[in-house]
Automatic annotation (TrEMBL):
Binding site for S-adenosyl-L-methionine: 162, 182
Gene3D superfamilies: Aldolase class I
Highest taxon above the source species: Bacteria
GO biological process, one term: sulfur compound biosynthetic process
Binding site for [4Fe-4S] cluster: 62, 66, 69
Keywords: 4Fe-4S, Iron, Iron-sulfur, Metal-binding, S-adenosyl-L-methionine
Cofactor: [4Fe-4S] cluster; [2Fe-2S] cluster
Key word 4Fe-4S present: yes
Residue positions binding (3R)-3-methyl-D-ornithine: 137
Coiled-coil residue spans: none
Gene behind the chain: hydE
Keyword Cytoplasm among record annotations: no
GO MF annotations in UniProt: 4 iron, 4 sulfur cluster binding; metal ion binding; transferase activity
Protein name, UniProt field: [FeFe] hydrogenase H-cluster radical SAM maturase HydE
Length: 359
């Protein structure tokens, strides 16, 4: 199995059956060699620098009814909100003072009529903070909207495809949503010159090892600048609330929580070796799953963390999954705590934009 790690490190790709073997591998020495190779690759490219992005959760209103998501349209148990442009700009001002030079605007998927508001917002942020990058994560839009966002100052776009397999995708999403349209949006984003991010939900309901291999091969071909990998965590107000209690894992000897951690860390390492210059976050979901999720992600090859800049009063309502971390080192006001955590494992925060680049 260690030969597969060496092959991936050298050739930056494996065959489908080899990816599968690596995913299912339980040998601790092999897994540690995978993480070590990825960690060394990240340090070669970026030093021991971790880029921070200021996450602003602009709305929890969503027109979609994805079966796994806590802010799905049909969930009547959360208080809906939408931040005003001025509230968002205040978040940016606060973040800028802390050193953030990238703002990530994330929200539920709104109707097309909201796109003009997004254009105005991007223009305002770019006008006040011209040295900052603007990242959008607001779902599937029409090509013309992506073009207008780009012209208004947005430079990056995050749109996780979640799963490449059409049948699996249909079991997680309502009728009318298709993986074909999601992939088309990603192609358009690349065409318009965005630094484009995609990724998957690891350990999602009905996911198989072969599904994940399909995702790896898609990402290998698509070559995104950013790769987001979050472990699935159930939400109490969805049809998958009891999923962890009623089903077995891909890795049958592990609990769903252990599996989510194991597979997410493996995939961070695989993608670091495959695409050495990519920007890979240690996600909030990873930090929610285990207290030292950030550190584990970085030691597996991640190089980005996104502390929460949203107003504290709304953070609890942006509830994609249960018990989402949004305070302490996961929050912008806890940047000092995060700095201490990273220094403990030999890394440091950098406050520049951290644009994708090849070295």
């Amino acid at each position: 199995m260690k030969d597969l790690v060496r092959k991936l490190h050298k050739e930056r790709r494996l065959e489908a059956c080899e990816y599968r073997s690596l995913l299912l591998c339980e040998d601790r020495e092999t897994i540690e060699s995978l993480h070590e190779a990825a960690r060394e690759t990240a340090v070669e490219r970026f030093g021991k620098n971790i880029y921070i992005r200021g996450l602003i959760e602009i709305t929890n209103i969503c027109r979609n009814d994805c079966l796994y998501c806590g802010i799905r349209k049909s969930n009547g148990n959360i208080s809906r909100y939408m931040l005003s442009d001025e509230e968002i700009l205040e978040c940016c001002r606060y973040g800028y003072g802390l050193g953030f030079r990238t703002f990530v605007l994330q929200g539920g998927e709104l109707p097309e009529s909201a796109d003009s508001k997004t254009v105005t917002l991007c223009r305002a942020i770019h006008g006040e903070f011209p040295d900052c990058a603007i990242t959008l994560s607001i779902g599937e839009r029409f090509p013309d909207s992506y073009r207008r966002f780009r012209e208004a100052g947005a430079t990056r776009y995050l749109l996780r495809h979640e799963t490449h397999n059409p049948e699996h995708y249909s079991r997680l999403h309502p009728e009318g949503m298709t993986i074909g349209n999601r992939l088309h949006c990603l192609d358009i984003l690349k065409e318009y010159g965005y630094q484009t991010g995609t990724g998957i939900m690891v350990g999602s309901p009905f996911q198989s090892a072969d599904n994940i291999v399909e995702d790896i091969i898609y990402i290998e071909k698509f070559r995104p600048e950013m790769i987001g990998l979050g472990p699935f965590i159930p939400h109490k107000d969805t049809v998958f609330a009891d999923y962890w209690k009623t089903t077995t894992s891909i890795l049958p000897e592990k609990s769903h929580k252990e599996e989510g951690l194991d597979l997410t860390l493996k995939l961070i390492s695989v993608f670091r070796l495959m695409l050495p210059d990519s920007l890979i976050p240690a996600t909030t979901a990873l930090a929610t799953l285990v207290p030292d999720g950030h550190e584990k992600g970085i030691l597996a090859g991640a190089n980005v963390i996104m502390p929460n800049l949203s107003p504290p009063r709304v953070r609890g309502n942006y509830s994609l999954y249960d018990n989402k971390a949004s305070s302490g080192a996961e929050a912008a006001e806890g940047l000092g705590n995060l700095k201490v955590q990273l220094e403990r494992i030999g890394y440091n925060i950098v406050t520049d934009r951290g644009d994708f680049r090849t070295t």
